[in-house]
From TrEMBL:
This is GtrA/DPMS transmembrane domain-containing protein. PANTHER family: PROPHAGE BACTOPRENOL-LINKED GLUCOSE TRANSLOCASE HOMOLOG. It comes from Methylophilales bacterium MBRS-H7. Belongs to the GtrA family. The chain crosses the membrane at residues 12-32, 38-57, 78-100, 106-125.
Length: 130
C-alpha cells in the first residue's frame, strides 16, 4: 500500500501523463479538424498517448526495461488497465459536448483524460509495473 502513495512516483507518473496529454490533445485536435468522429478521434488519440506513456513510465517512472515479447505483453496489459480511463474520458467528453456544445470538445477531452489519471495510476502500479 505504501508504494501506491509514493508522491515521487505519482508525480513522475503525472509528468509522463502530461506528455501523454499533449500527444492525446494534439492528435485529437487534428483528427477532429479533418472531420473524423469525436469518439473515433478520442480512441485513436488514447491509443497513441497510452503507447507513449507506457514507454516513458516503463523507463522513467518505474525503472523497468522490457524487451521483445515481454515488452509487447506488458504493453497490452498496460493498455487493458487503461481502458477504464478511456471509458471515463469518453463519458466526460460526450457529457461536456452534450451540455456545453461542440465548441468545448477539446476541453471535454482534456477533462476526461485528467479524470481517468488516478484510476490509470493505481491500476498500472498494481497490475503492470509490479
Amino acid at each position: 500500500m505504501q508504494k501506491i502513495l509514493n508522491p515521487k512516483t505519482f508525480f513522475k507518473f503525472a509528468f509522463v501523463g502530461s506528455i501523454g496529454l499533449c500527444v492525446n490533445l494534439t492528435l485529437f485536435y487534428f483528427l477532429t479538424k479533418i472531420s473524423i468522429n469525436i469518439n473515433i478521434s478520442s480512441i485513436i488519440s488514447f491509443l497513441f498517448a497510452t503507447f507513449s506513456n507506457f514507454l516513458f513510465n516503463s523507463k522513467f517512472t518505474f525503472k523497468r526495461h522490457y524487451y521483445g515479447h515481454i515488452l509487447i505483453a506488458k504493453y497490452f496489459k498496460y493498455l487493458s488497465v487503461n481502458i477504464l480511463g478511456l471509458l471515463i474520458n469518453l463519458i466526460t467528453l460526450n457529457a461536456v459536448i452534450s451540455y456545453y456544445g461542440a465548441d468545448l470538445q477539446l476541453f471535454g477531452q482534456a477533462l476526461g483524460v485528467i479524470l481517468g489519471m488516478m484510476f490509470n495510476y493505481t491500476l498500472a502500479l498494481k497490475k503492470v509495473f509490479i
